[in-house]
Amino acid sequence: MSNRKNLPKDLIKQKLLKGEITFARCGPQMFLKWKDTRDVLVMSTVHNADLAPVTVRSKVGPLEKFKPQVIIDYNKYKTGVDHGDQIIAYYPFNRKTMKWWKKMFFHLFMVSTVNSFILHKKTKKVKNENLRLRNFMINLASQLANQSDSYSRFNEVSDSENRLKGRHFISKIPPTLSKAHPRRVCKVCAEKAKRSTGNRGRKETSYYCSSCNTPLCVDECFEIYHTKQNYWMIFLVAFQRELSVLERDSK
Ligand SMILES: [Zn+2]
Ligand SMILES: [Zn+2]
Fold this sequence. Notes:
This protein is α+β, with helices and mostly antiparallel strands. The chain is 44% helix and 17% strand. A 3-stranded antiparallel beta sheet has the order 1-2-3, with no helix packed on it. A hairpin with a 2-residue loop joins strand 1 and strand 2. Helix 2 packs across helix 3. Mean pLDDT is 81; it is low at 148-156. It binds zinc ion (2 copies). Residues 186, 188-189, 203, 217, 221 line the site of one zinc ion.
């Protein structure tokens, strides 16, 4: 952190003895350097440079020492953040092609998901200690995928009314004059690619739904296209895949 732009350079370079502090302030931001066994740099918008007594363990028994309040608070509250980050790390949304702001979005999305999971567990009337984040996420995903009418009211209803209802059968794309085995780009793969990378997907298929006149991959996309309102949401599709793995494992 010490090489970040606009930090007070002279403060960073300043040599301190053990237990000494130095600090600078700019508006609501406070920058503090404290030497414990090594240099510790912190920034805060809610602290000042006050010291507070703490009892520390030492070879000769408990000892009272003074530490900056900002360090005490950091040590007190960081475990919650570490714990949250750890939970999130189990379900990484790592996609190499993703733009940074989409990574950012998914990270914040996961932070909100984990927070609501924790609140859900705390406030639920029927306590379910065994509820796991994975199952919570799968439920959340199905709810988001199936009940987002308000979002799609303007652009998707006529399309989805046909798509999600009625009878749909998979058939081979019929031959044309120029091609005996024509292939077309899968609609689901194309939408997913368009919305995650900005480029049109190129995954081709020889199959299509004849009632929708829509090319679709046989394995996953045909089912997703006819069952999910927002079939292009890649994370929902990923959840859906996980759900089918779970269902298969639990049999
Ligand atoms: Zn169809
Ligand atoms: Zn596909």
